[in-house]
Amino acid sequence: MTENASPRAVAARLSGTVRIVGAGLLGASIGHGLRRKGIDVVLTDASPAQLRLAIDYGAGREAAEGDNPVLVVVAVPPDVTADVIEAELRAFPDAVVTDVASVKLRPLTTLRERGVDLTHYIGSHPLAGRERGGAISARADIFVGRPWVVCRDEETPANDLALVEMLALELEAMPVEMSPEEHDRSVALVSHVPQLVASLLASRFADVDEGLLRLAGQGVRDTTRIAASAPELWVQILGANAGPVAEILDALATDLAQVSQALRAPEAPGARRTVAETIARGNDGVSRLPGKHGQFRQFEKVVVMVDDTSGQLGRLFGDLGELNINVEDLRLEHSPGAQFGLAEISVVPSIVGRAREDLQARGWQIASMND
């Protein structure tokens, strides 16, 4: 039995039954999170095998006649989201219906064109996920600390809005109110275009000699990590949000053309400035990304060499705790063939000097001073 299969008795804000339509990664993860709070969760899925697997892992029970949910969560692929929302609104007219699709305007427009009563529908989207999908990859904690967009309008009943926001809070996510248009423009920039850029870059590796790829370090792995995502799902997502994505890609193509032109003639007047300003602009953009707890803070790095033997990483964390060094973020890197790894520890700037000195005093080798 997995950890998710045993709900913990924790005080819940939601009461009543929550119905989840779609027992894949997001649907099953929501089920696990709510079950840990003792909430009654019923599941349904078009795939009997997927449904059975999610139930076996403890994400909820199978939906049955007589279920009277207070909240319905639609977690199905984008191309059928509007159809399922419409069906659930008709089947459970007293329930609040939300969905967790990654595009918000297209389903809403489709439902309005059909004349569906949307009084009790509120679109939402948790900015969380994993590269691998399906019920077997579901986890109760993937929403912790992540934004959960809630798309309300002036006609949204206050109690309905509160119910969807309580769903996010139960899963320890952070509710953020946005319009569907704002949401789709935002995810185009921070999610959909990065997926395409990662995939385009990773595709360059497909036909090159494997010997060249032995030089790959953590930077290229970080840049292409999301390229392992499922093509079938992304075809639907990108098709549903094509306009905002295309606008950003056009602007990116212009930037790439300028840099490419500068590199074709690096000695030409202004060429080096173009490259330098491109890198500097990237620095500015990265500095604006929120970090831990959504804070806009920059941290210093302490890079520690860790032997690739059992217990070494645990010893490092033990020393960090005893030295009262709070780890704001952590990244591990392994070089091919090396018998050690690099632990890149992010700390607040005010303690970086002490952290390096104290760790060295305990026998740790600092691989980079980052000065």
UniProtKB/TrEMBL annotation:
Q: Does the keyword DNA repair apply?
A: no
Keyword terms, alphabetized? Oxidoreductase
Q: Which residues form the Prephenate/arogenate dehydrogenase domain?
A: 16-293
Gene Ontology biological process terms in this record: tyrosine biosynthetic process
Enumerate the SUPFAM superfamilies for this protein. 6-phosphogluconate dehydrogenase C-terminal domain-like (SSF48179), NAD(P)-binding Rossmann-fold domains (SSF51735)
The EC number(s) this enzyme carries = 1.3.1.12
Q: Name one GO molecular function term.
A: prephenate dehydrogenase (NAD+) activity
EC category: oxidoreductase
Q: Which family does it belong to?
A: Belongs to the prephenate/arogenate dehydrogenase family.
Specify the protein name. Prephenate dehydrogenase
Native species = Microbacterium mitrae
